Amino acid sequence: MHRVVDIEDPAQQARLQPWVEMECYQLSSGRHVAQMQSLDFGGPKIVRERQTAAVQKLGFAPADFCTVSMSSAGEATRFSEHLSVEGDTVFFMPGNVEYDIHVPAGVETSYVGFSWQAFLQAARALNPAMWESPPQGVVALPTPMHREFKTIVDLWLSAADAHHLPGHPPDAARLQNHLLHAVLKIAATSENDTVLSFGERRRALQIGRNARTFVDDRFDADMLPTVVDICMALGVSERTLQYAFREYVGMSPVAYLRVCRLNRVRVELVSADPASTTVTQVAMRFGFFHLGRFAGDYRRLFGATPSETLAS
């Protein structure tokens, strides 16, 4: 469900987020409190709030609900004991945590929420050292990542604004995976690259070949492979997989999977009947929910639009 609401009562701001316990108090004057935009498909949630009045939010996250959030540049926003002054901090809140947030007037905040257990399982596969002992409270994540997070939120909400999703809603499982793995790139960060020895390079190439076989098998089973799936299946960390793919195909695992999905779309479009198949149906089957971005990527890779391929 996609919703855009102008809020005059802070209690309404809390009621519109029933997946967390929340009390919301207005701290500065004004009849209008905020504009809230949300996207909820029953699993993951995306929320963006533009405050016109300062508020304090007090509450408790359920045991199986976690969030990654950020605030825009402007006056300092406080998330429990953490402070964001220039809009360059991304906050992670695990499940079963009490929170106390102060958002000044004029600040925009955004968050993505999903299953804490699903996040933790995937994060441990990508970066065991970082996530073996999960955080017990709100933590601030590396500052350069806030731009990537803003892009995720903007893409999903703009797609909903343009009504690209309501007519062709993706199933909840694929939506959950898409959002989860996009946010995992921010939260489960890897260490810097190093130069591999000959033996390490040979092992990296074998990991790449095994990964390719796994990816093909997943596609053949009508399932979308993810970086987490590959790490779990091969028993390697995200850092190791990054090194392997650099040697194997000269790109990151995420970029490689996207190219593989684009190639699979092309194969489907070439063999499809234009009278009974649409580009949207095929694109969403392979996890492309932002159709404008998909069309641009497709044309850059193949030199033709998806519609041209379908009609050929």
Give a written overview of the molecule:
This protein has 312 residues and is an alpha+beta fold. The protein has 2 domains: 2-161, Jelly Rolls; 172-311, Arc Repressor Mutant, subunit A, CATH 1.10.10.60. The chain has 12 helices and 12 strands. It has helices at 10-15, 116-126, 128-131, 146-161, 172-187, 198-220, 227-234, 238-248, 253-271, 279-285, 291-302, 306-311; strands spanning 2-7, 21-26, 34-40, 45-51, 55-60, 66-71, 77-79, 82-84, 90-93, 98-103, 108-114, 139-141. A 7-stranded antiparallel beta sheet has the order 1-3-4-11-6-9-12. It has a 5-stranded antiparallel beta sheet with strand order 2-5-10-7-8. Helix 2 packs across helix 5, helix 4 (146-161) runs antiparallel to helix 5 (172-187) and helix 6 crosses helix 8 (238-248). The chain is globular, with a radius of gyration of 21 Å. The two termini are 36 Å apart. The model is unreliable at 190-195 (pLDDT under 50).
Q: Summed up, what is this model?
A:
The chain is of the alpha+beta class and 312 residues long. It is built from twelve helices and twelve strands.
Low-pLDDT stretches are: 190-195
* Secondary-structure element pattern, one letter each: EHEEEEEEEEEEHHEHHHHHHHHH
Mean pLDDT: 85
Q: How far apart, in Å, are the first and last alpha carbons?
A: 36 Å
Q: What is the CATH C level class of the largest domain, in words?
A: Mainly Beta
Q: How many H/I helical runs? A: 12
Strand content: 15-25%
So, CATH architecture of the largest domain? Sandwich
**Rg over CA atoms:** 21 Å
Could you say which overall geometry the principal axes of the C-alpha atoms support? Answer: globular
CATH H-level name of the largest domain... which superfamily?
Answer: Jelly Rolls
The proportion of residues forming helix, as a percent range, comes to 40-55%
Biggest sheet features: 7 strands, antiparallel
The total count of strands amounts to 12
Number of domains: 2
